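Aim 2 progress update. The chain analyzed this quarter is reproduced below.
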Amino acid sequence: MKNLRIRQLLLALVIGIASLSTLMSAHGQTSMLVSDYPSSYVVQEGDTLWEIAGQFLRDPERWADIWQPDEYLDNPDLIYPGDTLKLSILGGTPRVFVQRGDREVATVSPQIREEALQSAIPAIELESIENSFTRNRIISATEFEAAPYIVANVGDNLAIGTGDEIFARGSFSLGTTSFEIYRAGRTYYGPGLKKKRAFGLLSKTEDEVLGLEVEYLGFASIVENTASDMRKLLVNNGTKEIRAGDRLLLREESSIDATIFPTEPSEEMSGKIVAFLGAETLASQLDTVVINLGNEDNLVIGDILSIQKEGTQMTDEVERGKMPFRERMSSLLNQDSLAIPGTDVGTLLVYKTFDRLSYAVILSSTEPAELFNEVVSP
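Predicted structure tokens:
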């Protein structure tokens, strides 16, 4: 008890000393001022800094100790005729502030600002993501086989590129002069549906062809009609080496405006990522992926989809622990499990649609997308 009393006295002594020190410091600061200092002073033409300081301080040389420049004013360290100097005591320390007549003082309060909502999802400038778009297409094998094809190069060089002339053979539509050059790539397969003749029902069949991906190689324009089924063309631009056998398809007109206003699909969507461009095994932000949804699913350009990581199956041991022995054994034999939903790992923007497949670019991702990740309505 005696030790406790001593500690209490020491604590009171420390607090008293600190308070006395604060009072002495404040007194020392305020004693800098003249006894009849003004609360404010308007600077006059012809005033000197020494005279102004003398309005407030016993020792005008200590003006820098109390001057508080306003960083929001032009030339905050200078004083002009017409400025109002106001003295305040802050934390026991005198401070002189300036109020300049050409600055308006307004009282503000929080306000609600209303703006028209143009889109549920922010608009996207096309130029910020279009470099991630592919110029490949997905068509049917029949369409590819029916397209005109390159038969030879006019020159002697083996490789065909920009500026070369070529001969192409096939069926050319009247009035068409520009073509894009493509080469057959991957064929995509998926489960198909087939009607049973007897009952008119749908049943799953073996995997069927969803589409043939053709790789973009460049574009060319007709310069001469050499025969009814042959044309001479100039390769206006070649992005890769062009060879005999490559096909000519009508040039596509872009259906995307300079500003994209992403939309939610008109109905619930559920599909999968079935491929990446090139030989990649993972995809991240601004990478293009192929999904097994398309025009037949009412998917349109500009639709947004969520990428979902596959859910897991687990045993609910808490629920199983409540079961009688026979029921618990039956549950084990039947392999009853609880489905844990998947988690969102990214967002897709659809920018090219075909009958049963589409190209989409990953706008955002928290982790790399994998093949066969689900894509669903957001």
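The first strand starts at residue 40 and ends at 42. The chain is about 15% helix and 35% strand. These observations will guide the mutagenesis experiments scheduled for the next reporting period.
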